[in-house]
Amino acid sequence: MTSGRLGSPMRRRVLGAVGALAAVAASTAAVSAPAMGQAQARMPVMAASGTPRRRLRQGITPHLFGATMDETCRMAAALGIEGLDFASDPADWPLIRQHGLMVSLLRVDYGGGISRPGRAPAGPTGWNAIGTPDRDGGFEAALRERIDAAAANGIPSIIVTCGERGAIGYDEGKRNAIGFLRRVAPHAEARKVLLVMENINTGHTGGPPAPPGSMFDHLPWGLDVVTQVGSPSVKLLVDLYHAQLMDGNLTNFLRQHMPLIGHFHTGGVPGRHEIDETQELNYRHLATTIADAGFTGFVSHEWTPSAGQDKVAMLRKCVDIIDV
Question: N or C: at which end does the chain have fewer Cβ atoms within 10 angstroms?
């Protein structure tokens, strides 16, 4: 991820696009700026015909625009986005609420909340890698604190990941992940916060580097973990980009297991860029499948725009693809 304020020419183009998008949004929907706790209860955005058209709530990761948090929030709101994934710094949360948005997915960053400029340091062994032993209990303690913070601020979900296999095989990693989640699930249940475990591909190129041996790289592995934990507060975060690289057959998986899925990430294959017709995944079909199954969580855009593209126009197109 990158950070920093936009240069003045780019900044003027971005702010001009924000104004244009805001005008479009104002003409198609009268959307107020509800508090974070009210954002989940929004009415669907209305199409020009006056009929509801939004069946899925969409989010973005702040790095997508490469802008300040205020500019990102303004652009997201104008596009009909409802949430920001990984806006993990509590200092940003009042601003996000002011724009009528919510933090859709929280990350337990090592060394403090990171919304920008990217990922926090990896932390000690076991930090946000629940398939490996949390040797000093630091991540578990931090996760419990984040569960409390999420509950207090209307944040629905927290991401957990499983780390790399290394010397630990799939079976031992599964036992570690199940044990960890069984310990923290009652706390999450009591606070009505959802823990979502993300799949990450093993070693594929054509996008951000992937670990050579991701522990949760195949969907059936994670499905077994979630099933054995057996908590309503523990579900899958299905990253459709990673899942296509490792497993495919996504439509059947989604139809069979939607009750155990709590969050989605999108990304084009190959390259993990925009999710348009240049990619092999038919995201319009996937979005219809997800909506038809009654999914009520977030489908969030976590990809990097192709070079030389108008980011705002590109994201509007991708939002429309998911906007079944």
Answer: N
> Which domains are delineated in the chain?
8-322 (3.20.20.150)
Short-list 288, 222, 314, CA closest to 260: 222
The CB density around residue 20, as the number of other CB atoms within 10 Å, is 12
Q: What is the pLDDT of residues 184-239, one digit of tens each?
A: 999 999 999 999 999 999 988 766 677 789 999 999 999 999 999 999 999 999 99
Number of H helices, E strands in the chain: 11, 8
Q: Report how far residue 175's alpha carbon sits from residue 161's, in angstroms, rounded to the nearest whole number.
A: 14
Place of tokens 């990941």: 161
What is the separation, in whole angstroms, between the first and last Cα of the chain? 29
Burial 314-323 (b: 16+ CB within 10 A, else e): bbbebbebbb
Q: Which two tokens stand for residue 194?
A: 């959802």
pTM attached to this predicted model: 0.84
Task: Summarize pLDDT for 83-126 with one digit per residue, the tens.
Answer: 999 999 999 999 999 999 999 999 998 877 665 556 677 788 88
Count of positions (residues) in the chain? 324
Using CA atoms, how far residue 12 sits from 6, 22, 58, 116, 311, in Å, is 9, 15, 26, 21, 14
Alpha-carbon distance of 101 to 83, in angstroms, equals 5
Beta strands in the chain (DSSP E): 57-60, 83-85, 102-105, 157-160, 194-198, 234-239, 261-266, 298-301
How, if at all, do strands 83-85 and 57-60 pair?
A: parallel
Q: With beta carbons less than 8 A apart as the criterion, state whether 237 and 196 touch.
A: yes
> Rounded to 5 degrees, what are φ and ψ at 274?
-55, 155
Alpha-helical runs (H) found in 79-168: 93-98, 138-152
CB 72 within 8 A of CB 20: no
CA geometry: angle at 45 spanning 43 and 48, to 5°?
A: 135
